[in-house]
Amino acid sequence: MIDKKFIESQKRSIEKDLARLEEEVKRGRKFADIGSTNEDNALEFEVFEENLALSKNALREVKDLRGALKRIEKGTYGICQKCGQTIERGRLKAYPAAAFCATHVKQK
């Protein structure tokens, strides 16, 4: 069983990460205006593609973090969605959005 103090600490960490990632997604959707030459245009597109890839990863992580907050609200945070056992505390520390124990993470 995971204690309430740990869950509250995780919630604060998740909320902080969520705010940071949502801001990252906003920045990633903006198109850089570097200049007007063909070289500048190519660089703008390259930067935009990189930002878009980062935004896709950030959006995936945002979804996972929101799911973790919902599990906290429901009282199911830290419980493996596959087997119902407690997720390892170290795993939750390393990845607060974890929804599966180490045994079932690859089987989701």
Summary of the model, kept short:
With 108 residues, the protein is mostly helical. Helices cover 63% and strands 0% of the residues.
Could you explain the architecture of this structure?
This protein is an all-alpha fold. It has a single domain (4-15, 32-107), classed as Four Helix Bundle (Hemerythrin (Met), subunit A) (Up-down Bundle), CATH 1.20.120. It is built from three helices and no strands. Helix 1 (4-28) runs antiparallel to helix 2. The longest helix is centred in the middle third of the chain and has 37 residues, at 38-74.
What is the succession of H and E elements? Answer: HHH
CATH fold descriptor:
Four Helix Bundle (Hemerythrin (Met), subunit A)
User: How many discrete structural domains?
Assistant: 1
What would you say the CATH architecture is?
Answer: Up-down Bundle
What is the mean pLDDT? 84
Beta-strand segment tally: 0
Structural class: mainly alpha
Tell me roughly what share of residues is in helical segments. 55-70%
What would you call the shape? elongated
How many helices does DSSP assign?
Answer: 3
Q: What does the main sheet amount to?
A: none
Integer-rounded radius of gyration: 18 Å
**What is the highest CATH level, the class?**
Mainly Alpha
Distance N terminus to C terminus? Answer: 22 Å
Beta-strand level of the residues, as a percent range? under 5%
Low confidence ranges: none
* CATH homologous superfamily descriptor: DksA, coiled-coil domain
